[in-house]
Structure formats: C-alpha cells, structure tokens
Model the fold of this input.
Amino acid sequence: MGQLQLEEELGKGNYGTVKRVLHKPTNVYMAMKEIRLELDEAKLNGIIMELDILHRAAAPEIVDFYGAFFIESCVYYCMEHMDAGSMDKLEAEGVPEDVLGRIAGAMVRGLKFLKDEMQIIHRDVKPTNVLVNTKGQVKLCDFGVSGQLEKSLAKTNIGCQSYMAPERIKGESTGNLGTYTVSSDVWSLGLAMIEMGLGHYPYPPETYANVFAQLTAIVHGDAPELPEERFSESARDFVSRCLHKLPGSRATYAQLLSHPYLVEDRNRDVDMVGWVKRALESRAEKQVQQQRERNQQVLEQQ
Ligand code: ATP
Ligand code: MG
Done:
C-alpha cells in the first residue's frame, strides 16, 4: 500500500470500492479494488494465492492483473486502469451496430480465452465488467477465479439487475448449483449485448411487482431481442443464438466467432476511438446538466 498514491474513486460495486491509484515505483496508473471480508488470515491468504493465477491470464481482451494483497480484513486487487470506464456508463442511448459488433467480438474472444487457456468460466458477464479505454480497446474484468473469494462474498443485493441464465436462476432457487456451465456465460453475453444496444437493462425493475416476478419473466418469458429498427438481421440473429432458454441450444464461442455478425466486424473499419470520445463527452454533458437541475431544485426549495 505504501507504494500507491490514492486518487479518485472510479466506482462502487456491491462488494467494495474501486479507486484509481498511482503505483509510484513504476509510475503506472492502476485501478485498485477493495473488498472487505470478515475472514481469518489463512482464508485471506488462500484468496491471494488463488488470485495469483491471474498473472497467467494475459490476453488482449482481458484486463491486466498487477497483483493483490490484504490488510486486516480487506483484499486489495490491482488491475489495469481502463480510462473510459465500464460500458454501463457509456451505453446511454444505445451503442450503434458496428460498435456493438466490436464489443461482442472482444467479449467472445476474451471468454473463449478464459475457457480454453485458463479453464475459467467468467460467471459475472455484465456491462459493468466490460471496460473500455480511450485507445478504443475493450476488455473483460472480474471473472470467477477464486472459489474462496466467491464463497466469502456476502450475496446481498442480487436481483434488481440479474444477468443470470434461466438455469442458474432455477438452480439458485432449488439449491441445485451444479447447473452452471460455460453456456450460462453465453446467456449473460447476449443479455449484456441487448442492454448495450438498447441503452438500458431489458427487464426494467419498474415493470415488475417484485424481484420474483422479474426473475419469472427471465425464466419463462420470451427472451429479449435487439430492436429491428436499429439492428441488422445478423446482429439480431447473433444475440438470439445466445439467448436460448435451453443451455444446450445456445451457440458455442467457436460458433459465435464464425457468425456473420463477427465476420462482418472483422471486415469493416470501426472508429472505436471516435465513439469512445463522443460517449465520454455526452456523459460529461449529461452530468453537467444533472448538476444544473439539482442546483435549480435546491434554489426553488429555498
Ligand atoms: P458488482 O458489485 O455487481 O460486481 P460492479 O462491477 O459495478 O458491480 P465493481 O467491480 O466493484 O462493481 O466496480 C465498480 C465500478 O468501478 C465499475 O462499475 C466500473 O465502472 C469501475 N471499474 C472497475 N474496474 C475498473 C478498471 N479496471 N478501470 C476503470 N474502472 C473500473
Ligand atoms: Mg465489476
């Protein structure tokens, strides 16, 4: 910790806070995630050892891992800082077809790498774990590498925005957790793509009386689709291949890589740098606007 200079907060998740930090010996900016766990030293050491395999998880579509340590009952985990942040905060009005294709390609290659080279199932594919930088790169983070860490995280605040596949929702409710396979990640990939394409989560909580009704819709309702008006047949078909109710009917990563949508993606120029720049600008404008509105409200109340 002494080597790090703490900078601003990048975001908060259900289990901890992510801050930008400067690693003083190397002059490298990193993102440091703090996870508070009420565990003994042996368990914390076990987690650090499990996280260590992340040093091997080096791929263009995976966020670089720099190291982890613990102090008292907190695990600190340092990774590559992605200076445009996560996709949930960039998708606003919905990502255009070509940019979504670039993101989908990166996600599929990243997930395939984890599975084939690391024997890891991601388990938490969602827009907050898809990170982007101003070089236009797209990378995945927060995959389930440590069984001990996973077991120790208090499962608060699930529901609300679930990216879990139907079989996994059913498994959690019946106690049969063995139903989780690599194709559960494919469902989450499809759902994340719909959210990024639409600009919002496709099962909006306000439409349902409660979390149970929402989860029932995911398990029994029709799978969501990309809107016809804004997306080509190939993009829509790609997503529908991820969102089959039966895990065995979903496409594999190899099939997704040879799908026309990703073949088209490889053959076209996509200005990712320009898109990231505009998305960041419009996010900043929106924040200014929101602040203005808040100030206005305060003035009116006075
Ligand atoms: P959950 O707790 O459900 O996993 P989450 O993914 O949003 O949700 P965290 O992983 O704790 O929670 O991350 C919090 C936020 O910090 C993210 O939403 C993201 O915007 C930001 N963030 C995380 N990692 C990085 C990183 N490496 N570079 C830049 N921003 C990051
Ligand atoms: Mg995350």
Remarks:
- The chain has a mean pLDDT of 93.
- DSSP finds ten helices and eight strands in the chain.
- The pocket of magnesium ion (ligand 2) is lined by residues 13, 128-129, 142 (CB under 6 Å).
